[in-house]
Amino acid sequence: MTAITTTYPSLETILNLARIYMNDWLNDGAGQITTDTSPQTLPTLNASVRELYRQLRNVGSPTLIRDNVQIALPANGATGPGVQTYLSQQGYFDGLTLQANPKLPSDLLFPYELWEQQTGSGLPFVLMQQPQAGLPSVIEQGGALVYWEWRGGASFTAGAGGGDALFFVGSIAPVTIRIRYQAAMTQFSGTIDFANTYVPVMDCEDALAYKVAYKISSAISGMTPPVQDLKANMESSLSDLKLEIIRRAQTIEYHRQAYATGSQQDWGNGANWQ
Known about the structure:
274 residues
């Protein structure tokens, strides 16, 4: 017997299970209706993965959390009370010019926490603050960013936002930020090696296989009794995954995060590094 060494299920494992649940395992298990190359297979698999990740995120799953991702931001190109800078997938707007680099990580869905360090200083990273009512207006930028805000922009033009982005008032000195964020699951496309492509969620193969089987079967035959059974099994498998995450989370003591007040602002000399 060959030992299993991979902790994550492959797409082939998931699809083989889905074909069994759909009673479509003929042709040496490759199926006759939902084969690896059938037009419905990849879109349904992608939809099932997206749905699974949304459901797991909603119960606090740490599966796709990225941490300690560091990005060096240049000093502001402009200063003053009306200046805001931003970091997006299109580049970095320094208050004057949209620069092609740096950029947000391509898989960033939304940030959890940010820290900052004066670039090259060797000092520890300091936790930044996310103000409840948006970024303050400052007379003169200092040597630290201090605050950040995650929001969408109206367009991709310089100064107008650049899509979902991290916004700052900027700094007169280069700053390196450290990000902890929720990553998006890469969608599968093109020619795929199903046997060697994995979904990075341990023990999720049953939940995903039932999702694929239910979505395709309900599209083909409607809500027949067998399809209703697939739905029930899908919900049961998902419930088991969620319960594991919730029980794990109960071992950690959480506290509500407080928002900063205006009295805590200090912009003159980057005082949050002192």
